[in-house]
Amino acid sequence: MNPQVPKIKCGFILLARKLQESVIMDKPPLYIKLWNWILLQACFKDHGDLRRGQFFTSLRDMQKAMAYKVGYRTVKPTIKEIRGVMKFLTKSSMVVTMKVTHGMIVTVCNYDYYQNMKNYEKHNEGRAKGHTEGTIPRKKGIKKENIYPTDFLLFWDAYPRKVGKGTALKAWNSNSRPSIDAILSAIEKQKKSQQWQEIKFIPHPATWLNGRRWDDEVPEVKKTGWS
């Protein structure tokens, strides 16, 4: 009888094989190191004021975490380099940041989707084609304008009026927005509103995004009859 295998402390994260096809792999090593660190720092479940997939940090914390040894010498990336990586991750729809006192709250986009084993094919099926975490594939011959970020596709699938997909993508890329979880939650609430019961009264997706309509207060649907 085999001895009981000791449990590994501190839990784990899932890393999609599709990451190998992401443009982040063409970047300097700092990019993938910081991305992995972000995944390791994100809350696995809601904790205090932080939601699942979020954590509090600062540029200085990131700089310290990205330090490495060359002999006895410690080498740190500059704050400018850290900002550059975060700008890339934000533009690629991999993270969303929100400034707060003494730092920022980082939200990993699509955290629930990529950190759920049920969403993966069997591990022995090898690498799957496609892009990861909203980034653009490295595969040649694919036009950038035809690539839709993963979180945008989640938004598009949830939005009940599917018109003007290209225009909606432009609005998605040109506007700051909360996490995809917050957007999906807002859509679900607005689907229950009186206005959204008829398709003609539902705003076009681009209009909804440009108007930051996720912040709308949704009135309760009036009950009729004796119920």
Written description of the protein model:
The protein contains eight helices and five strands, in the order H-E-H-E-E-H-E-E-H-H-H-H-H. It has 227 residues and is an alpha+beta fold. Strand 4 and strand 5 form a beta hairpin. The termini are far apart.
Largest sheet: 3 strands, antiparallel
Counted by DSSP, the helix tally is 8
Nearest-angstrom radius of gyration?
21 Å
Oligomer designation: single chain
Highest-level CATH class of the largest domain: Mainly Alpha
**Order of helices and strands, N to C?**
HEHEEHEEHHHHH
Q: So, CATH architecture of the largest domain?
A: Orthogonal Bundle
The CATH topology of the largest domain is given as Arc Repressor Mutant, subunit A
Note poorly predicted spans: 124-146
> Distance N terminus to C terminus?
63 Å
Number of strands: 5
Please indicate the count of domains: 2
User: Helix/strand-derived class?
Assistant: alpha+beta
